[in-house]
TrEMBL record:
It comes from Alterirhizorhabdus solaris. The keyword Zinc does not apply. One of its GO terms (biological process) is tRNA threonylcarbamoyladenosine modification. This is tRNA threonylcarbamoyladenosine biosynthesis protein TsaE. GO terms for cellular component: cytoplasm. It is found in: Cytoplasm. The gene is tsaE.
Amino acid sequence: MSLPLPDAAATLAAGASLAPLLCTGDVVALYGDLGAGKTTFARGLLAALGLAEEAPSPSFAIVQAYAPPEVSLPVSHVDLYRIEVADEAVELGLDEALEDGALLIEWPERLGAALWPHALRLYFSVTDDGARRLTWEVSAAWESRWPPR
């Protein structure tokens, strides 16, 4: 299945649709090239969780953590673009972040086999007309939750 994302507003809305489904311990893996819509999707999700300002890209910080009252559920927005080997990610404390919140990971392929098997895998691509398309792989943990009904 796939979802067309004709513009940034649609990508923000798709992110917002995930917010009420997100639970403690969830991992959402965002795949796609630079400019494919991963950060825009994350911004929509974080806004729907209550973040008042626009979420910055975590490209330089690598991990941007949000917690109540800023958002309704603790979420760590992670950008692994600058991680060169999966072992470097261990130092980020992502397992600990899952104990009381969720992970939203851009460039999850940098983790290789270390990506949590229960992750929801979302794939963003740019279509020939410049729009975006969202496709996904759903783990057993997400079968009853994604896509939103």
